[in-house]
Design brief:
The protein is of the alpha+beta class. Helix content is 40%, strand content 18%.
Length: 240
């Protein structure tokens, strides 16, 4: 059974992957130097109010599992649902407190700063996906700016290049994980003769909001891991 929604999502991700290959580390390093971001240690970036959730690449999720598996949760805003009402999501996120702050944040300081996760290391230099005037997708600028910190501070050429390399490496790993997820779920849906139907997804989310437990299949290390969750697990995310 073909699923046009999954095909479209997969196609879009592969376009992003092709665009990312055109980025040169030095070009991004020049932008980083021009931005000159400096952290003011306010801790805002470590809250869901400013940054939604900490999406974990597989390697980071594996580290959390070694620390304490209960700190992991299926990433909010599940991508897909099958016709049986099961959800599918592309990876894990880090749990947060009910006020939306990171579980590793204490007095605006990260308790694991030297071993923080990949997305935390590159922040705020995630690349921003945006269509141009002709609606062609582009990586137009750095995201995560203008909400905190200060700008136009000096950054050494070596540091800027390091930030650029780490940012591009993260984006490559993120897209590879997303593409792997959609390819795997497409194959699974074909095998189960099911598909993603938006109306069914929305109906199941409404049931979830009312307190019904749901099963979420998390894409992790090349397989789907079933996890049962309830709405209260997501209180700090402001979702669903």
């Amino acid at each position: 059974m073909s699923d046009s929604y999954i095909d479209r999502e997969l196609s879009g991700l592969m376009v992003e992957q092709d665009l990312l290959l055109k980025w040169h580390e030095q070009d991004l390093a020049d932008i980083i130097s021009d931005v000159g971001f400096s952290c003011l240690l306010c801790g805002r970036c470590c809250t869901t109010e400013f940054n939604g959730h900490v999406f974990l690449l597989d390697a980071d999720a594996e580290r959390v599992m070694a620390m304490n598996p209960s700190l992991l949760i299926p990433a909010p805003e599940f991508e897909l649902a099958d016709e049986e009402g099961n959800f599918y999501v592309s990876g894990y996120a880090l749990r947060v407190r009910e006020d939306g702050s990171c579980i590793f944040l204490t007095d605006t300081r990260c308790r694991i700063y030297d071993e923080r996760f990949t997305i935390c290391r590159i922040y705020p230099y995630m690349l921003h996906r945006e269509p141009d005037r002709r609606k062609n997708l582009e990586f137009r600028q750095i995201s995560g700016l203008n909400e905190h910190g200060e700008y136009h501070c000096p950054i050494s050429e070596d540091d800027a290049l390091t930030f650029a390399r780490e940012t591009i490496a993260y984006e490559k790993a993120y897209l590879a994980q997303m593409i792997g997820f959609y390819r795997a779920v497409r194959a699974l849906f074909e095998q189960k003769n099911t598909r993603h139907i938006r109306a069914g997804y929305d109906r199941r989310i409404q049931e979830f909001r009312k307190g019904a437990p749901v099963v979420v299949y998390v894409w992790f290390q090349g397989t789907f891991v079933p996890v049962t969750v309830r709405r209260e697990d997501y209180l700090g995310f402001g979702w669903p």
